[in-house]
């Protein structure tokens, strides 16, 4: 690449010189036409010095560029040479280090082999010592075993003699036990027969008693069912009667409102009265659903005043008069309702904002 740049510079320089010579020749007059000569005539062609200076300057610049290119090429060549030398030194150092590492590894291997051989020798010596000790231990164990066998034979003979005596005694004892067992079995059979007879009599009596008890229980259950039905019927009648009284009390509660609205007269008054009566019926049903009726409330009454908001929310419920216990139950029923429905007609709402009622279950 560097030689190519240098060659290009030289070619350009030669081309410029050739162009300069052509221009010089082009400006010269080489015509040989004969003309009449009048005295001595000198023909000359003038060349602009500025053009010559410019061309000369271009030639000098091209030469300088070629020189600079050559110097740059030499510098790059020197740099590459130095880089190659540095690489060569690095490779040499790496090879030296590898050789050194190899020698170190070989040395370590030799040391390890020496250590392994030493350990193997020590292991063989320990094995030999262990074999000698094992033989000595085996001999000692054999002697101990021989003594133990002799003792065991003697003990076995003594045990056999003792066992023979024990067997003879056991046979005698077994015969005695067999005789005693035969007597006991005979007695047990007799006792069992006596118990079986007694059990049969007891079972028969138990069956008879059980039948009597079953009959008595059936009668008692039938009576209990009849009593329960009678109580349920009485309770239902009492509840129906109490409900009827409650309905009558609520009807009385709203009768005053209906009478007041009837006195107003006219179509508007009648409409308001009808709406008040209709909503009064709704309120009555809602209160009836939440009122807990107790037998102790019989013959008692409670007068309450309800204040409702424009949207039917219970603002206050107060006791005017009557039984305290009944009034507490009535208040609880009203509060459980919490919010009563209200109509869209403001005149009807006005009539329903404050309600006086008498609760009499």
From TrEMBL:
PANTHER family: GLYCINE, ALANINE AND ASPARAGINE-RICH PROTEIN-LIKE, TOL-PAL SYSTEM PROTEIN TOLA. The chain crosses the membrane at residues 6-26. Residues 100-124 are annotated as: Disordered. This is Cell envelope integrity protein TolA. It comes from Photobacterium piscicola. Residues 100-116 have a biased composition (Basic and acidic residues). Keywords: Membrane, Transmembrane, Transmembrane helix. It comes from the Bacteria. Coiled coil: none annotated.
């Amino acid at each position: 690449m560097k030689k190519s740049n240098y060659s290009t510079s030289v070619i350009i320089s030669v081309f410029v010189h050739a162009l300069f010579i052509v221009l010089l020749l082009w400006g010269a007059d080489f015509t040989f036409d004969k003309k009449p000569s009048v005295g001595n005539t000198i023909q000359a062609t003038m060349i602009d010095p500025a053009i010559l200076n410019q061309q000369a300057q271009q030639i000098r610049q091209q030469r300088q560029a070629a020189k600079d290119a050559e110097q740059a090429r030499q510098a790059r060549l020197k740099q590459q040479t130095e880089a190659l030398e540095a690489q060569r030194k690095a490779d040499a150092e790496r090879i030296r280090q590898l050789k050194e590492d190899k020698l170190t590894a070989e040395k370590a291997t030799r040391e390890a082999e020496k250590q392994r051989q030493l350990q193997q020798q020590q292991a063989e010596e320990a094995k030999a010592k262990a074999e000698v000790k094992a033989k000595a231990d085996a001999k000692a164990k054999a002697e101990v075993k021989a003594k133990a066998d002799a003792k065991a034979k003697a003990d076995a003979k003594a045990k056999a003699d003792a066992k023979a005596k024990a067997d003879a005694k056991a046979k005698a004892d077994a015969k005695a036990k067999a005789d005693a067992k035969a007597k006991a079995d005979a007695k047990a059979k007799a006792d069992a027969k006596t118990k079986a007879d007694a059990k049969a009599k007891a079972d028969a009596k138990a069956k008879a008693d059980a039948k009597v008890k079953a009959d008595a229980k059936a009668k008692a259950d039938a009576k209990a069912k009849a009593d329960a039905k009678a109580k349920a019927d009485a309770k239902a009648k009492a509840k129906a009667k109490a409900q009827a009284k409650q309905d009558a009390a609520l009807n009385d509660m709203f009768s005053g409102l209906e009478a007041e609205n009837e006195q107003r007269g006219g179509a508007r008054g009648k409409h308001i009265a009808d709406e008040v009566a209709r909503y009064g019926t709704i309120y009555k049903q809602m209160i009836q659903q939440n009122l807990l009726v107790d037998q102790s409330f019989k013959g008692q009454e409670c007068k309450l005043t309800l204040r409702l908001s424009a949207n039917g929310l219970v603002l206050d419920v107060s006791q005017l008069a009557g039984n305290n216990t009944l009034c507490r139950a009535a208040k609880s029923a009203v509060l459980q309702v919490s919010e009563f429905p209200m109509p869209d007609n403001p005149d009807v709402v006005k009539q329903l904002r404050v309600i006086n009622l008498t609760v009499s279950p």
